[in-house]
């Protein structure tokens, strides 16, 4: 049962720390897997880059499709209970990933791990943000985003270190102590809450159809170069994606508990914030993979060196995320996002013009620092903008939907990067890498255009019920 009793500041901090730890866990498995992608490929030589890209995309697709149903189910069965189940499941599926004997079983285990992450993501913040007044929520989002950025910072060097001293399978085993700690602390500190007025069952069939649609779209993008963009296979995949996603839209308009609530999409700030989140995620996830491929395959870095080489960006994000939230609370989301997008474009131009000969200090380091600053300004602020005008009793659904848009962007970004870069000959590798950064530049420019449509100044604070049954935010 949901309590309306005010939460002491110390308890709020503890709850936020646990939620941030959960965000850390989910984001660690994004960046650490990207970093070790070349070594995973070496373990499965029978699979090409397009097949192995499903180790990344399967995780993103399942999260994108299941975030909302998982959040709604958690509203009914209890958010603390769902959080603990999700964390335990994440630990079990991480072990399955670690012992996978083939690339196909690794993809299957990543699908199951995506299910666990889809439970953790919406529930973690749904447990947190009822504890914070409206004027502090963007700051809380910034802290949660900083934890995710810290995971991004830890992922590359940790993945590289594990590959150097052991094996890529250890990138999944490191999740086990984190999940154990979260379960122990969560059981002691978190307060149970549920939506006592929830009715109807979430549209699980619609979520399954969404998985099919997103999977077909990713397949068409990844295989388009090999199949031929106008070939029969590409046309069939695009057709399946179009039909499946059209069915999902139709079900959203008619189902009582849809995957995406049309009422939320009619809120201007939510619609713009979610579209912006998708576009920034497209850039973000394409750049993560593109950076590792560039450093390892063009500059000849080891996986450890490549991981260490990307650390300054996420560290800059950690530093910037919290202050960015406070600036957004004071001056409005647009005032933070638009400059952040311009910095992002500048960073991508620097990274995308990197020469064939290594020049870390003079070229790569400035690009990574600018990239990290931009992410800290843009990513969490778009998430805060999305829920700025959402009623308090819809925060849970809004959080999950915005998170689904983020994962949809991850699917598109990863698939486009693989499609644009392909598997070029050594003589063409540099040009292919530079083309990969163009994908991100286009996405960021579109995101800046979306941000210009946001409200110029922050909305006036209005009283919000504390302890609401579905309060959450996204980063």
UniProtKB/TrEMBL annotation:
Q: Subcellular localization, per the record?
A: Cell membrane
Entry's PROSITE patterns? MFS (PS50850), SUGAR_TRANSPORT_1 (PS00216)
Please tell me whether the keyword ATP-binding is annotated for this protein.
Answer: no
Q: Which UniProt keywords apply?
A: Cell membrane, Membrane, Transmembrane, Transmembrane helix, Transport
**Molecular-function annotations in GO:** transmembrane transporter activity
Using the UniProt record, give the first listed, main subcellular location: membrane
One of the record's GO cellular component terms: plasma membrane
One Pfam family recorded for the sequence? MFS_1
Keyword Cell wall biogenesis/degradation included in the entry's annotation: no
Q: How does it sit in the membrane?
A: Multi-pass membrane protein
Q: Where are the transmembrane segments?
A: 12-32, 52-74, 81-101, 107-129, 141-162, 168-190, 202-222, 234-253, 274-300, 306-324, 336-356, 368-392, 404-422, 434-454
Q: Which residues does the UniProt record annotate as the domain Major facilitator superfamily (MFS) profile?
A: 15-461
NCBIfam families in UniProt: efflux_EmrB
Q: What is this protein called?
A: Major facilitator superfamily (MFS) profile domain-containing protein
Q: Which organism is it from?
A: Paraconexibacter algicola
| Phylogenetic lineage | Bacteria, Bacillati, Actinomycetota, Thermoleophilia, Solirubrobacterales
């Amino acid at each position: 049962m949901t309590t309306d009793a005010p939460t002491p500041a110390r308890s709020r901090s503890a709850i936020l720390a646990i939620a941030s730890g959960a965000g850390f866990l989910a984001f660690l498995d994004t960046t650490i897997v990207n970093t070790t992608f070349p070594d995973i490929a070496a373990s499965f030589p029978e699979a090409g880059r397009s097949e192995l890209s499903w180790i990344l995309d399967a995780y993103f697709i399942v999260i994108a499709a299941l975030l909302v149903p998982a959040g709604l189910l958690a509203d009914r069965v209890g958010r603390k209970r769902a959080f603990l189940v999700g964390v335990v499941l994440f630990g079990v599926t991480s072990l399955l990933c670690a012992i996978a004997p083939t690339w196909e079983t690794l993809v299957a285990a990543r699908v199951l791990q995506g299910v666990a992450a889809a439970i953790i993501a919406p529930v973690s913040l749904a447990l947190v943000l009822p504890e914070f007044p409206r004027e502090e929520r963007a700051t809380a989002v910034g802290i949660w985003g900083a934890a995710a950025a810290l995971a991004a910072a830890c992922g590359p060097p940790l993945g590289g270190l594990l590959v150097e001293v052991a094996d890529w399978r250890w990138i999944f085993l490191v999740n086990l102590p984190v999940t154990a700690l979260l379960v122990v602390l969560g059981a002691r500190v978190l307060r149970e809450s549920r939506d006592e007025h929830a009715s109807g069952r979430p549209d699980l069939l619609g979520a399954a159809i969404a998985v099919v649609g997103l999977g077909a779209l990713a397949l068409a993008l990844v295989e388009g170069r090999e199949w031929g963009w106008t070939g029969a296979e590409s046309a069939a995949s695009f057709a399946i994606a179009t039909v499946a996603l059209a069915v999902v839209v139709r079900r959203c308009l008619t189902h009582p508990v849809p995957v995406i609530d049309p009422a939320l999409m009619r809120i201007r700030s939510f619609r713009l914030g979610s579209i912006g989140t998708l576009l920034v995620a497209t850039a973000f996830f394409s750049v993560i993979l593109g950076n590792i491929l560039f450093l390892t395959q063009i500059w000849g870095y080891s996986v450890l060196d490549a991981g260490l080489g990307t650390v300054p960006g996420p560290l800059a994000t950690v530093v910037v995320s919290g202050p960015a939230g406070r600036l957004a609370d004071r001056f409005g989301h647009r005032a933070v996002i638009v400059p952040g997008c311009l910095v992002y474009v500048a960073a991508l131009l620097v990274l995308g013009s990197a020469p064939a000969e290594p020049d870390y200090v003079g070229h790569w380091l400035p690009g990574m620092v600018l990239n990290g600053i931009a992410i800290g300004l843009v990513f969490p602020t778009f998430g805060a903008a999305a829920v700025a005008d959402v009623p308090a009793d819809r925060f849970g659904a809004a959080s999950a939907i915005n998170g689904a848009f983020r994962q949809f962007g991850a699917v598109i970004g990863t698939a486009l990067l693989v499609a644009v870069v392909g598997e070029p000959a050594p003589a063409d590798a540099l040009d292919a890498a530079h083309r990969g950064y163009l994908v991100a530049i286009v996405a960021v420019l579109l995101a800046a255009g979306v941000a210009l449509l946001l409200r110029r100044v922050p909305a006036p604070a209005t009283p919000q019920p504390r302890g609401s049954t579905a309060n959450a935010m996204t980063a």
